[in-house]
What does this fold into?
Amino acid sequence: MVHPMLKLLATQPELLAEHVAAYAALASAEAAQASEALKRRALLGAAAALLGLLGLVFTGTALLLLAVVPLASMPLPWLLLVVPLVPLAAAAACAWSLRSGPSTKSFVHLREQVAADTALLREALQS
It folds into this structure.
C-alpha cells in the first residue's frame, strides 16, 4: 500500500512546488531582514569608531592649544572643552545604541516553519 503523502506528491506535484516556493520566499525575507540588521550594526560601529577618533583628535588639539596659548588671552576658552565633547558624546550615543539595540535572531520564522513541517511529516509517517 502506498503512503498517502507519497500518493499526494505523485498526483499533485504542484503542491510541493508551492511549498518550496513559500520556503524560498520566507528565507529571502528573513535574509533581507538579517542583512539590514547587519548593515545597521556595521554603520553604527563605524560611526562610533570615527566619532571617537575625531573626539580624541580634538582633545589632543585642545590640550596643545591650552599648553601654548595662555588661558587668560583666549577669547572663548570653554570651546576647548565643548568641541571635543560633541563628537565623543555622539560616539557614546552610537555605541550605546549598538549595545542596547535589539539583538534579533536570524531566521527564527524559517526555523519555526521547518520544525512545524518536520513534526507534521513525523505525524503523517507514524499513522
The two ends are 13 Å apart (CA to CA). Helices lie at 4-11, 13-68, 79-100, 108-126. The chain has four helices and no strands. The chain has a mean pLDDT of 88.
